[in-house]
């Protein structure tokens, strides 16, 4: 395919780009049933909150088509990744569509198309916050590989490049899964946007040198007060930005806002298997009998965030009030 897509549905099959194999191989996994979809989400063939939500919607439809009950279909997908709220949002929407007698395939396609349109709106809002040509920094992967469209934070960066406002992009490698080095660099290369990959722990020092004019990150869940869960390492960036007065922007669709979560205390943080820390591409980089802690996400406090950029507009601190206008 000429256009980079993290997934597409065709002939009763959900084709999911296996992001574990990028950037060296572009291979699509054929998800033919709900268990295939659950596997793809759990094992991170697909990742990124918006993309997970879209894929889960198709998976729910498949489960119902296979003859599973609504509760069975919901449960199988719900337990794959606990932090990304878009997963629950999409499943709740599909469950409601089923109760209303709607065509589930059309509803899943609608969710996908809405994400494409949402990405474009966020990109415009975010790009308006940058005045001149700048070096920007991003973490993890928040582009086409994480969404149905051009991306969230990376979508803003693509729009900035389109407007000739990008000098180059600093890309955190994003340990331990290397979504920055493998995936964001892959997307930027395809889009002909200049970039430089950096070690995660070097980002605060680079920010202190005055090189970075803004940091754009995505989100997996935003509490109603603005506390944000995102890929581990995001909190560190927010602290450096606050210390050196660098704008720190979170870019996410309103479907990522969990209005039922009052603060970070209501956000579950996924802890993944230790092997992801101890190995790289299946090869041990530490003694094999080592233990490890592998939190997949951290929490950035609302007061560290300069603005939250959504498809409905830009919100500013205090978020408890400013985010409310985005609530449906």
Description:
The protein is 37% helix and 19% strand. It has 328 residues and is α/β, with parallel strands linked by helices. It folds into two domains: 7-116, translation initiation factor eif-2b, domain 1 (Four Helix Bundle (Hemerythrin (Met), subunit A), Up-down Bundle), CATH 1.20.120; 120-326, Rossmann fold, CATH 3.40.50.10470. The strands form four sheets. The protein has a seven-stranded mixed β-sheet with strand order 6-5-4-7-10-15-16, sandwiched between helices. A four-stranded mixed β-sheet has the order 11-8-9-14, covered by helices on one side. α2 (49-65) runs antiparallel to α5 (104-127) and α5 packs across α6 (153-162).
What is the element layout, followed by pairings?
Elements: E1 7-10, E2 13-17, E3 28-31, H1 34-42, H2 49-65, H3 70-78, H4 85-99, H5 104-127, E4 134-138, H6 153-162, E5 166-172, H7 179-190, E6 195-198, H8 203-208, E7 214-217, E8 221-223, E9 228-231, H9 234-243, E10 248-251, E11 257-258, H10 275-278, E12 279-280, E13 283-284, E14 297-300, E15 307-310, E16 313-315, H11 319-322
Parallel strand pairs: 4-5, 4-7, 5-6, 7-10, 8-11, 10-15
Antiparallel strand pairs: 1-2, 2-3, 8-9, 9-14, 12-13, 15-16
């Amino acid at each position: 395919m000429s256009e980079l897509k993290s997934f597409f549905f065709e002939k009763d099959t959900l084709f999911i780009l296996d992001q574990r194999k990028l950037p060296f191989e572009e291979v699509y996994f054929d998800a033919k049933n709900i268990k295939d979809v659950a596997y793809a989400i759990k094992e991170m063939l697909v990742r990124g909150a918006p993309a997970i939500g879209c894929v889960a919607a198709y998976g729910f439809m498949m489960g119902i088509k296979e003859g599973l009950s609504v509760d069975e279909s919901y449960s199988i997908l719900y337990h794959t990744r606990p932090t990304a709220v878009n997963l629950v949002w999409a499943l709740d929407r599909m469950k409601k569509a089923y109760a209303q007698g709607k065509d589930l395939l059309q509803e899943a396609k609608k969710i996908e198309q809405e994400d494409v349109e949402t990405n474009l709106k966020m990109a415009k809002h975010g790009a308006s916050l940058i005045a001149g040509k700048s070096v920007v920094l991003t973490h993890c992967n928040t582009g086409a590989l994480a969404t149905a469209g051009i991306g969230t934070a990376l979508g803003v960066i693509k729009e900035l490049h389109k407007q000739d406002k990008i000098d180059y992009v600093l890309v955190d490698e994003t340990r331990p899964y290397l979504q920055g080095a493998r995936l964001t660099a892959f997307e930027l290369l395809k889009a002909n946007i200049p970039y430089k990959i950096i070690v995660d722990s070097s980002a605060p020092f680079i920010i202190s040198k005055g090189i970075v004019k803004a940091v754009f990150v995505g989100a997996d869940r935003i509490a109603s007060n603005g506390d944000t869960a995102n890929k581990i390492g995001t909190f560190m960036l927010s602290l450096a930005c606050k210390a050196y007065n660098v704008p720190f922007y979170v870019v996410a669709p309103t479907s990522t806002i969990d209005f039922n979560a009052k603060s970070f205390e209501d956000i579950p943080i996924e802890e993944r298997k230790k092997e992801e820390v101890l190995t790289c591409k299946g090869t041990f980089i530490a003694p094999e009998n080592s233990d490890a802690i592998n939190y997949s996400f951290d929490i950035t406090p609302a007061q560290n965030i300069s603005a939250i950029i959504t498809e409905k507009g830009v919100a500013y601190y205090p978020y408890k009030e400013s985010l409310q206008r985005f609530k449906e």
